[in-house]
Amino acid sequence: MKARVLSACALSASMAVAACGVPQAQYDAALADASKEKGRSAELEKQLADAKAEAERAKASSPPEAAKPTEGVDEKTKAELDELRKQKAAADARLKTFDELVARFKKMIDAGKLEINVRRGQIVLALETDVLFDAGKTEIKKEGEAALKEIADAIKTVSGRRFQVAGHTDTAPIKTKEYPSNWELSTARAVVVVKLLVKQGVKSANLSAAGFAEYDPVGNNTSPGGRAKNRRIEIILVPNIEEIVGITELDAKHGAGKKK
Fold it and tell me: Taking Cα atoms as reference points, which of 149, 81, 155, 86 lies closest to residue 116?
């Protein structure tokens, strides 16, 4: 299954590059992200198989009279297997979602309007703000509205997930009465995008907005191309709490954050 998913990503990328002349680097980055997810899933699958084999060997080599002393070990092994299964399921789900988004937004990726990548373990849709806004403004352009409408139609179909809209700028300062700094500008743009997504049918409860000003760059601010990449809106697929490794087990064991 995982091999087929990665193959689909690779086929989509190679067709797009051949047909549209899209910069190869965009697709190399997307394929690298998908490959990391596939590698993580394969690694977890191997760990799961090894743990199962070890448990079977231990069970086969234990004499009947040793059953009681190994009960604790069996419980520990079972817990480890359960945790590996959860991690593998989460990795497979991320890879599946990534592949579906790449296929859904192929035209926008081909046109250079959108990038999809995995950053800090999260799936990110990134649009350069030059597509969405004029310099120093927060009114969305018609071209930007069309792009966001297409994104809204897609993320509405991703059930049970939350999205954070994050605004980013380059290092060029802005000092206006309305936006004294890039903090205000990046946050205002994120809020405007959230409101448009809500207008297009995305549930308000599934959205949040944040502004990062110039402090989370993905490009080099010394070049025009790098600055353009940094001026962006990201729509981030927020992981479910169950996907954060060990958090539910930690809470169950230690009662973190609970009043006594």
Answer: 155
